Amino acid sequence: MSAPNIAIVAEGLTKSFNGRKVVDNLSMRVERGRIHGFLGPNGSGKTTTIRMICGLLTPDSGHGSCLGYDIRTQQNAIKRKVGYMTQRFSLYADLSIRENLEFVARIYGLDAPAAAADAAISRCGLSGRAEQLAGELSGGWKQRLALAACILPAPELLLLDEPTAGVDPKARRDFWDEIHRLAGEGLTVLVSTHYMDEAERCHEIAYIADGRLLAQGTTAEIIARSGLSTYVVTGEGLGALAARLRATEGVDMVAPFGMALHVAGRDAERLAEIARGCAGGAQSWVRDEPSLEDVFIDLMTHVEKGRR
Ligand SMILES: Nc1ncnc2c1ncn2[C@@H]1O[C@H](COP(=O)(O)OP(=O)(O)OP(=O)(O)O)[C@@H](O)[C@H]1O
Fold first, then answer.
1. How far is the CA of 47 from the centre of ligand 1 (A)?
2. Carries keyword Zinc-finger (predicted)?
């Protein structure tokens, strides 16, 4: 049994498919009422981890608890308390928002489906659109409807698998306001995303690659622990400079951001020396704090180098 303020504890979770480890000795802990972001490249094992945590998959080894229930032996109890929004949720295009939600409420076997649908409509800010057909909704409103369907059975934990993929920035922002409101009401949220702005809106983040946890903590902690020294380089000839820097020892990450190049390295002295060496050239080098994206690109570059 975990402490009452802890929603998820996972210790050494491992899962293989066809002899290939897709989650490798992964440990994590999520406090209740927190929004925990899950980041990592495609195929890094995020969905598989989420499915083990909510009792849909049994780990090959490792153990853990979700909402106080054992993820190996109490999977049915977990499923009753978790709302899971998958990447490919389905709704009925020719039913209205209200009809969709009433239908889902009936599937859940809720006592008063109409009242439950009403409550979900007002909780998720859908009141003005309740009678609109789901098929006519834009991507952002469809996601909100999916979120409303997830909270119908009053779950304690929401597992959201890339809930805003393909949704425009304003709708993503509104969706996140909603998630924060639900967390404020006490819901715990584990959400996978590829968007850095969304990662920064989480209380804590876990970054995984090749099934292994590479970084975990608040944005500030992850940036501080990265030990990266970063420069923002602007000016002429950035393409050629990037190619040269990628082959330079002491440069761990080079990434173009609009009209600038972000250059980072773990050895601050060596990178300062490289920056001094470029002084007086066509570019200007300005020391800056690494961004979360710098850190994740660096982690990924490291993993790719390790694979070669
Ligand atoms: N049931 C399964 N059988 C075989 N392989 C699987 C199965 N489920 C997942 N995989 C493989 O495991 C790896 C991890 O997949 P997973 O869906 O967990 O990654 P992910 O990080 O969620 O990826 P994405 O960001 O693309 O959603 C992938 O290579 C995937 O093809």
1. 7
2. no
With a 6 A CB cut-off, is 45 part of the ligand 1 pocket? Answer: yes
Cα 133 to Cα 91, 147, 184: the distances in Å are: 10, 16, 30
**What is the predicted pLDDT for the residue at 166?**
81
Please give the CATH number for the structural domain made up of 6-222.
3.40.50.300
Is there a contact between 160 and 143 (Cβ–Cβ < 8 Å)?
no
- For residues 272-306, one letter each, b for 16 or more C-beta atoms within 10 angstroms of the residue's C-beta and e for the rest, the string is bebbeebeeeebebeebebbbebbbbbbbbebeee
Q: Is the CB of 96 under 6 A from ligand 1?
A: no
48 lines ligand 1 (CB under 6 A): yes
Sequence spans of domains, the chain: 6-222, 228-289
Q: What is the mean pLDDT of residues 46-53?
A: 93
Helix (H) or strand (E) holding 24, with range, is strand 20-31
Q: For residue 211, which atom of ligand 1 is closest to its CA?
A: 14
CATH code of 228-289, in short, is: 3.30.70
pTM of this structure: 0.88
Q: If you search the block for the tokens 């609009």, which residue do you land on?
A: 258
Q: Any bridge partners for residue 189, and if so which? A: 35, 158
- For a ligand 1 pocket test, name from 13, 15, 17, 213 the mutation site with the most ligand atoms within 8 angstroms of its C-beta: 17
Give the closest residue (by CA) to ligand 1 atom 18. 45
Tell me the CA–centroid distance for residue 2 and ligand 1, in Å: 28
Mean pLDDT value across residues 128-150: 92
- The protein residue with its alpha carbon nearest to ligand 1, atom 28, reads 43
